């Protein structure tokens, strides 16, 4: 990674996934995120989610904006959360969802954003 771009995180807002080229399971996951999650279309739950569905993971607040988060004041900077979602399927529906997130990485980024560098000898921002 180029050190000059470390703080220039740009979130991905759209990924072109052609449903015709996806396996049935990948298409379920695409619909889960793109339609049910992003658009909050809960009418899709019976079509996508198995009646014995189980979720395992940590749910936290979704925050958009410039408010305080987890006792850290707003800095106006982007922060992100690395993680992985593991799906299992039964009867052509999502049966289990395990979500693992890097909580310590997120807290570290929030802590870094909280501390401002006030002086650098050669007037360059140093991290």
TrEMBL record:
Protein name (Swiss-Prot/TrEMBL) = Uncharacterized protein
Please tell me the species this chain comes from.
Talaromyces marneffei PM1
